[in-house]
Design brief:
This protein is of the alpha+beta class. It has 11 helices and 27 strands. The protein folds into 4 domains: 77 residues; 116 residues, no CATH class; 125 residues, no CATH class; 129 residues, no CATH class. The strands form 7 sheets. Strands 11, 12, 13, 14, 15, 16, 17 and 18 form an 8-stranded antiparallel β-sheet that branches. Strands 19, 20, 21, 22, 23, 24 and 25 form a 7-stranded mixed β-sheet that branches. Strands 1-2-3 form a 3-stranded parallel β-sheet. The protein is flat.
């Protein structure tokens, strides 16, 4: 909150009282939770002013500070257009500009106020659009004005033939050219000419140009590698601006549409190993006859690209090449990723790959997987499997964390939790365990060794998320209890291993369901004590932490 006052000279007692009353209205308002409160004045405070403000704010529970003249002048310097609009002649200049715009465009004055509104633009822009599309039976044209160029990966409708954009640093006008019918480009080909200087293409740009020619993949060629671009359509008549870039593709044949594709991995004996379904984009074809299929697995787990040449090439021993690229994974639900992760973990030799339609048998013979190693490590696959199992028992909607940011201790905790939810018993060692419980109704503490059952929750961090599994029972197979302190309301104890047995067992069950275990007793007998101690934490010599 900014409490604004216009006091520009040394504060008087009356002004300080006004500030204090404003502060109390905020502090005593039960409907407002304040994090920061700034006294905003066109005045730089003295040390005495600062001490006074600290004193009057001593009993408030939010941060307070000055927002003084220096900070206000900084804002005025940064936003000079705002100052000019409100205290200079900026408003008058703006209104004069709008009037000139109305005169140039034939717009009528707005129904209310003097600012140009969207309703003032409808009829003139519609008239321009109608005039642009009046005489061409083959194509229709849409246009839009934006601050930047359209992104290269924007959604492209099937009727779009080309886009022609012109602009400056502040605005870009783009004309989209659409075919009115399927054979429009055959009846009236669009004469587009340009010069690509292949000797000016290097690295990724040269590779993208080659792939565009061969497979119809998208490509961008920028100046100075491209020049002398002209497009033979009315919207480009008379334009002679130097070309900045040309974007090509994708080269989608007429009638090609998105589709579903199943992929199945089989082992050398022909048995199924893993399977997933991809969302495939329309097939593309290049000018030299090559083709490309590409798609994405669920939750963007990976992308698939297969390219082939209609004629043998010197750079490939086989006519078809397959590439599978791992997605970002972080932020995706591990349970949703699991089928794809299993597929990725098995995507290696000697397994083979089959392509199938959404339903039915394979459409071709299985192909050999090109790589001997899977695109993901076994450690990554095991971790996502563990997270997916945890999701079945965690109330929080888990998302896959950034693996590079996970410490080894955090990864170990996730795997231990997964073992628990899978019904396994975790066996570990312990040194000592502090305990506390209310004095009222406390059980009698045995003198000899006991088997101690501790109930509580297992809490772990998965990235930024906290996951709680309950109920967890930890069994200390043999322990002795020593009273180490306490109050009238609480008893403090320390448990230590007894009978030479420092084994600890953990289950995802309640104390009532945890089984008893035989213990080597030696010359002494062991009893059992069950305690619902709430969340407990012990550290064993191996460094593992059990909650």
């Amino acid at each position: 909150m900014f409490q604004i006052k216009s006091f520009a000279a040394a504060l008087t007692s009356s002004q300080r009282s006004q500030i204090q009353r404003s502060l109390r209205r905020v502090a005593d308002n039960p409907n407002v939770t304040v994090r920061d409160w700034y006294l905003t004045l066109p005045l730089n405070p003295t040390p005495g002013d600062c001490a006074w403000l600290d004193e009057v704010c001593a009993d408030v529970d939010f941060h307070h500070d000055w927002f003084d003249l220096g900070q206000l002048e900084g804002l005025a310097a940064k936003y000079q257009d705002v100052v000019d609009y409100y205290v200079g002649d900026g408003r008058a200049r703006l209104e004069a500009t709008i009037e000139r715009l109305r005169g140039l465009s034939g717009l009528t004055p707005a129904a209310s106020e003097r600012v140009l509104g969207p309703e003032d633009l409808i009829d003139p822009l519609a008239a321009v659009h109608e005039l642009l599309n009046r005489d061409d039976p083959h194509y229709h044209y849409d246009f839009h004005v934006t601050r930047t160029h359209a992104p290269a990966n924007r959604l492209i409708p099937p009727t779009l033939v080309a886009s022609w954009s012109l602009g400056s640093a502040n605005s870009v006008i783009t004309f989209d050219i659409h075919a009115r019918y399927l054979q429009a480009t055959e009846d009236r080909p669009i004469p587009v000419t340009f010069t690509v200087h292949s000797d000016r293409l290097e690295g990724a740009a040269a590779e993208a140009w080659d792939r565009m020619l061969r497979y119809g993949t998208p490509a961008t060629v920028e100046a100075p590698a491209v020049s002398d671009a002209e497009i033979g359509l009315p919207i480009a008549a008379g334009l002679s601006e130097e070309v900045a870039l040309i974007r090509f593709g994708p080269g989608v044949p007429s009638g090609a549409r998105p589709y579903k594709l199943r992929m199945r991995l089989i082992d050398p004996n022909g048995l199924d190993v893993a399977e997933t379904t991809l969302d495939m984009q329309p097939v593309t074809r290049g000018m030299t006859g090559g083709w490309r299929i590409h798609g994405t697995a669920p939750h963007d787990a990976f992308t698939l690209e297969v390219v082939g040449d209609s004629e043998p090439t010197t750079d490939a021993g086989v006519p078809m090449r397959l590439a599978l690229s791992l997605g970002p994974l972080a932020g995706e639900p591990p349970a949703g990723l699991r089928p794809c992760i299993r597929f990725l973990a098995a995507f290696r030799q000697p397994n083979r790959l089959q392509f199938l339609p959404p339903y039915g048998p394979p459409v071709a013979e299985p192909i050999v997987i090109p790589e001997p190693e899977a695109p993901i490590t076994d450690a990554l696959a095991d971790l996502i499997e563990a997270l997916a199992d945890l999701q079945e028992h965690a109330a929080a909607h888990l998302v896959t964390p950034e693996f590079e940011s996970l410490e080894s201790e955090a990864i170990a905790a996730i795997h231990r939790a997964a073992r628990l939810v899978r019904g396994e018993t975790i066996r570990s060692r312990w040194v000592e365990q502090p305990l506390s419980f209310p004095t009222s109704g406390a059980p009698e503490i045995p003198d000899g060794p006991i088997q101690l059952h501790l109930g509580g929750d297992y809490t772990l961090q998965v990235g930024d998320q906290t996951v709680v599994l309950a109920p967890i029972t930890t069994v200390l197979l043999a322990s002795t209890l020593t009273r180490t302190g306490g109050t009238d309301d609480q008893i403090e104890l320390t448990a230590r291993p007894a009978l030479g047995n420092d084994t600890r067992l953990s289950y995802l069950v309640s104390i009532e369901d945890a089984p008893l275990h035989p213990v080597e007793q030696g010359d002494e007998s062991s009893q059992t004590l069950a305690m619902d101690a709430g969340p407990t934490t012990t550290t064993d010599p191996s460094g593992e932490t059990e909650g």
